[in-house]
Amino acid sequence: MTTSPPLIPEQRQRELMRLLRGSGALSIRHLASLLGVSHMTVRRDIAVLEEEGLVDAVQGGVRLRERVGVEPPRERGSRAVLELPRKEAVARRAADLVSDGMTLFIDAGTTCQAIVPHLTARRGLTVVTNDFFTVSSLFAHPSIEVIHTGGVVDAASGSSSGALAAATVAAMTLDLALLSTGTWDVAHGLTTPELDKVVLKRAVMDASGSCALVADSTKYGTAERFRVVPLDALDVIVSDRGLPEGVADAIAELGVELWTADD
User: Fold this and answer.
1) How many CB atoms neighbour CB 101 within 10 A?
2) What is the pLDDT of residue 157?
3) What pLDDT, on a 0 to 100 scale, did the predictor assign at position 66?
4) Spatial distance between the Cα atoms of 89 and 107, rounded to a whole number of angstroms
5) In this structure, are residues 205 and 175 in contact, taking their beta carbons and an 8 Å threshold?
6) 216-252: burial string, b at 16+ Cβ within 10 Å, e else
7) How far apart are the first and last CA of the chain?
8) Is 128 in contact with 174 (CB distance < 8 Å)?
9) What is the pLDDT of residue 3?
């Protein structure tokens, strides 16, 4: 039995790019396994590709360099490895919006799911969500009442959306909505590649007394084809200090509060 010779760096880097085009983002551990090389070799290849402007190294992994019109990967496992400290900081700051006794909507996504551990000290909460991972995270906290919206299931993101989910939300009165997005900026507002998500997010906003976008700065400056709402329809944006220069002032001019997470 013969074995294939090891790939030279250029071949490895081509293969790494091919894998990323299929997934959008991958962890270093997974790439090392797929390529049959060490973690250090993968990191060296990532550094070369990053210098060429093709990828961005992130905490624990790598992703294709973001381009306008390209949403971050939809598959939950790929997104879960991205920008972990940044997401945690934003989630912790967003939890400050939540008070005892609230009925709140927590949108699908890894950043919004990261808010859950910071809610355990609150009393009398009801959490409404379309995210199956958030529901399972709340199993360990029986003092928090949980309502899932139902709707059309998206297995890749571990969530549901569409008209059925919107109908559930429309039957409720929400104190606060914590919305997620993969793409946002001042010019386009919140955007999404799927109409079902537009329907649900707009229903959530209509049912909520206050609305906050929870999104880290790596998602800023990109846009998808369907517009959910302009930024001035929000009450608060929770992000981090990595937003481009001038964005904070532009958000303030819209009359929207910007809450910045500590590093």
Assistant:
1) 11
2) 85
3) 60
4) 17
5) no
6) bbbbbbbbbeeebbebeebbbbbbbeebeeebeebbe
7) 53
8) yes
9) 53
> CA 239 to CA 93: how far, in whole Å?
9
Is 158 buried (19+), middle (13-18) or exposed (0-12) by CB count in 10 A?
A: buried
Instruction: Chunk the chain into consecutive blocks of 10 residues (it has 263) and report each block's average pLDDT, rounded to whole numbers.
Output: 68 84 79 91 90 82 65 49 74 97 96 94 97 95 96 91 97 98 91 93 98 92 88 97 90 96 79
CA distance 23 to 89: 25
Element of type H or E holding 255: none
- The Cα 31–Cα 61 span in angstroms is 9
- Show Cβ contacts of residue 218 under 8 Å, excluding neighbours closer than 6 positions: 58, 66, 72, 82, 83, 86, 242
User: What confidence score (pLDDT) does residue 229 get?
Assistant: 95
What is the distance of C-alpha 70 from the center of its chain? 14
How far apart, in whole angstroms, are the C-alpha atoms of residue 52 and residue 95? 38
Task: Please list, in sequence order, all residues whose beta carbon lies within 8 angstroms of the beta carbon of residue 22, skipping any fewer than 6 positions away.
Answer: none
Residues with Cβ < 8 Å from 249, sequence gap 6 or more? none
